[in-house]
Amino acid sequence: MQLEHLFKPLSIGGVEVPNRICHVPTDISSSHIDGSVSSRDIHHHEMIAKGGTGLIIVGATSVDGKAGRSTVTNLVIDDDNYIPGFTRMSRQMHRYGAKCAVQLQHPGRQAALPREGKLTASDQTVTLPWSQSRAIVYANADESKKTVHVLSTDEVLEIIEQFSEAAWRVQQAEFDAVELHAAHGYLISQFMSPYLNQRTDRFGGSFENRMRFPLAIIASIQKKCGDSFPVLVRYSVDEWVPGGRELPESIEVAKRFEHAGVAALDLSQCIQERPGAGFDPMPYQEGWTSYASEAVKREVGIPVIISHSLREPEYCDEMIREGKTDMVGLARQILADPYWPIKANHGKLEDIRKCISCLTGCWQESMMAKKEISCAINPECGNSAFSHMKQAEQQLEIAVVGGGPAGMEASRTAALRGHKVTVFEKTGELGGAILGCCVTPGKEKMKWYADWIRKQLAKLPVKVELNSSPGVQELKRYDLVVYAAGAKSWVPPVHGQKDNVIPMESVMACPKISCEFHPQDGRRPVKLPGEKVIVWGEHYGAVDTVLHLASIGKQVTVVTDRKEFAAAVESIHMYVFRKRFNQGDAEALESKPFKHPVRILESSTLDVIKEGEVDILDSSFNRSTIACDHVVSCWTKPDTELLDKLKAEGIAVVQAGDAVKPRNLHAAVEEGAQIGRIADGNKLFNSNRAMVDDLPLDVLDQLKR
Ligand SMILES: Cc1cc2nc3c(=O)[nH]c(=O)nc-3n(C[C@H](O)[C@H](O)[C@H](O)COP(=O)(O)O)c2cc1C
Ligand code: SF4
Hints:
Elements: E1 10-12, E2 15-17, E3 21-26, H1 39-50, E4 55-62, E5 75-76, H2 83-95, E6 99-105, E7 118-120, H3 131-137, E8 148-150, H4 153-172, E9 177-182, H5 187-192, H6 207-225, E10 231-236, H7 247-259, E11 264-268, H8 290-299, E12 304-306, H9 313-321, E13 327-330, H10 332-336, H11 340-345, H12 360-364, E14 397-401, H13 405-416, E15 420-424, H14 446-459, E16 462-465, H15 472-475, E17 480-483, E18 487-490, E19 495-496, E20 502-503, H16 504-507, E21 532-537, H17 539-551, E22 555-559, H18 571-581, E23 599-601, E24 604-610, E25 613-618, E26 623-627, E27 630-638, H19 641-648, E28 653-655, H20 665-678, E29 684-685, E30 691-692, H21 697-704
Helix pairs in contact: 1-2, 3-18, 4-6, 7-8, 13-14, 13-20
């Protein structure tokens, strides 16, 4: 049997888990405003159970909604009236054979709500968590308003009670177990951390004292729920701050928990002062945390769960076979593809949509932006309309102009619904802007998505016309045109040698013509003989260009008129990349340092390009001259030449992705998928020029008559 270790049952505290796949807690921030379970919560977890995950741990759930919610709509279980909603959720998971637990949390200093007076173990890190990365993106970041209340000893005792009452409610709601969130710098983690806990009472100082809070919570739960109700604990093996907890102490922690009757250990990483290791962005490799589970597992007899960047079923199976862990934990992978287990079990490995660790959908544009969960590459995540997608009643002939992510996703969903789709791509390969990631160090995972969707298209009746740029006449015969031609670089007004500016596309071209991700359009990377390069521009394109050029030894200076360079790029990636720009690495990453640091000139613009130098103007009109061998433009704008002509001809056309406005993969996939999902025989456009579906029967009848 393939992957036999992954699909072997395991007992956790007497609960028989059908396989070794655990959905480690993931707050999907989709509850009602009071924290009660919503239909979105139920649908999301039901989908995961359907997909065959053995153990599902529902994300951070507040034990005291008023004093601490980690996101504005995370779950709450601080009163008995939450029990019915949680029961509905557990029953939907049990229906598909999964075992389930709820992760109980008090966010403490890291609360999204309340904004003032957050509860904390001690007050020395008030301004730290996330402020660096969030402030770049969000001018009004919560952290600027952060005030804290240091818990008195009596208040600590009260919170211990709140945890055990919450655990009792979890038990009443028919869950199989409860997990304590003692990782990532939230309240329990803060008490346990030698770096964060500065208390002088019996809950601070020595190892014994720092362990007192979690151990008291466990004892209190056991008293209230009985010894046989399994308690799991999630904690960070390495905190990645000087003076923080490291592996040797984490092994001692494991032993204490085992001694206290904990049923399983869910091992994670980091506190929020060092987010790189906790939310591993793209450059982190699969298996980088296995050192932790291997070491802990050697010292305890209870099951160990390890997570972080695990993506490949075979790799996971191997980890279990080699005794590196008892269970594999998947968080984002299950968001990207909740059907990972069933596909792995049926040997459909190439159909698994592997999470690319981009953190845009699930983090930047949901949790951090105070919105509900989504995923950049899985339109179904957070949008149940995709779960109920039906075959189209009338088949359309659809032309898709542009074979980038938006065009491919529109083609995939439209073809799934039975439409006849032809994709026209002007280069020799499908992939669009993703193909540039071939030369961006640390962003290779982008190609996973390109690879996946190309294979899906190959399995569907989608006709692909490569090296093809159809005109209006050719497109006229289609029922619907999806315009997804992407964006292209351009050069803003500048004095001097404007013609010498090199477009980003010429620099980011992959040199390997034989590579399956080479666009095959005759493009070769231009040679840059000089060392000093100005990267002039913004957004993902500019960041990727900087990473590429710095990695091949160029001395790069970024010039941008924005206050913050790449402010819209996902913040944890920028946290890591800024460290790379300074020739360092973030937390657990180990990569070759750049030969030169990257210099960033913000609120500045390029005024004159001369021979061997450029003039820069800052926002106060101060002029400076810097030496430079080449200027690369990374400003992009939509490519709309053909679109305007199609509209003028009255052809039914809809736009998607960067052809609307340069953004990111998430926007492209979502818009493409949405078009594929709603395209139907009626092809009705409203007065906003948006395609509409699902109109009430009488309105449809009135409009068509
Ligand atoms: C959207 C999102 C929500 C998360 N919510 C939680 C949570 O509620 N509790 C927790 O312990 N970890 C949480 N995490 C961390 C994940 O459980 C996991 O440790 C991390 O994403 C790395 O593993 P992965 O590569 O499998 O995603 C969250 C991560 C993300 C991206
Ligand atoms: S948004 Fe990106 S990181 Fe998050 S689950 Fe989807 S692919 Fe993974």
